[in-house]
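General statements about sequence and structure are easier to judge against a single worked case. For one protein, we set the task of working out the structure tokens from the amino acid sequence alone. This step matters because it turns folding into a mapping between discrete strings. The amino acid sequence and the backbone structure tokens for this protein are reproduced below.
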Amino acid sequence: MWFSRLSLKLFLVYAVLIIGLATVYVLWIAGLQRQLVAEQVDLRLRDTALALESDVREMLVEGQQDRLQRIAVDLGRAAGMRVTILDPEGVVLADTDEDPAVMENHRYRAEIQQAAERGIGKVVRSSATLQRRMSYLALRLDERGKPVAFVRLALPLESLDAQVAALHRYLWISALIVGAIALVLTYAIAAHIMRPLSRLTEAAEAVAGGNYEQKIPAGGMDELGILARAVGHMQRVLTRQVVELRENSQRLETVLSSMVEGVLAVDADQRVLFANEASRKLLGIEAQEVVGRPLLEVTRNRPVRSAAEEALRLQEPYELEFEDSGPQRRFLAVRASRLPGEPCPGVVVVLYDITKLRRLENVRREFVANVSHELKTPLSSIKAYAETLRLGAIHDAEHNEQFVARIEEQADRLHRLIQDLLHLAQVESGRQAFDIRLVSLGELVERCVPVYRERAHARSLTFVIEPTQAAVMVRGDESGLETILDNLVANAIQYTPEGGRVTIRCRREANAAVLEVEDTGVGISPGDQQRIFERFYRVDKARSRELGGTGLGLAIVKHLTQAFGGQVSVSSELGQGSVFRVQLPLAA
């Protein structure tokens, strides 16, 4: 139906508006009438002034100023207005209501000033002399281009004010009656319209406040009902979207919190919007609440702030790497990117800890250099002896066998180096196939004793095996465990001078099996102890090569021990000897 309930309500509302507009129209008419009356007053004053102009000018020219007072009084009584005649300086020459002799100078009255400037002046104000509200009109009289006098006419406005006041009273009474009727109608209409709207508003406010379970009243079949159903549908869509946003936010927060990379977001004014736990650790941020604080207060890390500033300035991602000078020496990579939007809402800074990568690069470079050096030494020796033989020494029966023996010795050294490299590479990569079984460490040591004792006696060393109180069983590869023991004992024998002692211990400690190899050798400095298990690292490089070591034995020990779930360590003092300790899980 085109004439629906809502249309009726709107019709009534428009009716109220029409009544209001009618009232405004009546008031406008009253104002217009007042304006017309005022214009009539101005016209009357102007006509009277023009009629008086010629007589006053004639009297002033003829010097008959004594007649001015009589003309002013006669004309003022006849016209019902006040007439004042002034000379060019503002001195009153004649006035219908007061004695000119006692009147003050009128040169600075507003209407006189206007007349002096424009020839005519009009002002509505209170008379300082009569204490009455009057409409003034002043006319400047000129003779030969010079002002000779001013004629001022004034008409009291009491009659005009009385007419306007009467009209206002009539209009206010009419407006009061119409307004009262309109208020009653408005109240009834508003109550009828606002009742369902109020229920709908309360429900919508509840939803806006977070109560997404609030039911929206369905309403009727009119436009309000359609609106209610639309709001209900919007509530369901909004509820679903809020739930999805909340879940997405939680997932995003979980992802950001679990990232090893630091994520830091700042706005265009360098105030922190977000900082995950990794960024706090990498930048050493101790404050609990950082959101909303300037980045300069949160961290003194200049490279991070510079990256954010450059990303804002360049309007493209900015990357840099730097060494952090904090308590822990680390290398960080920073990538700062602008957040989408105009104006730019800020920058997201991602921090990567590349310390391990840098260390791996250094290890790789050192490894390549060490391998090259270790291979170069025996190859150079082999080449030198071969060239010597080729140049004629092969026919020297006294030395040729010695040269061939040296070539064979260097070839064996090269073979051991390559074998150790291959073994270490297989263990590190996890490609080494182990035969994991129960192994008794005590029996393993006893089985290898004859070989170790023979090596020790050859260097005039005392070789001691401390007895084991109980069986020490581990799960591991027997060959791998023997390699660990062999490398540790060989290392101890190599670095222990004549008359020294090498001791092997095997025991249980809590839930671990412990294998120790102790020597009374030269010892290892604290600085060297940190790197003793690295590839090709030697405390005494010249002595190690002299004794035929490859520099890979302890590295193999470390990786084999880790492959069996254990760990290796060393304790040593210079000149006092060393204790290498291998700790493995006890077999269940």
User: Anything to note?
Assistant: The two ends are 89 Å apart (CA to CA). The longest helix spans residues 5-62.
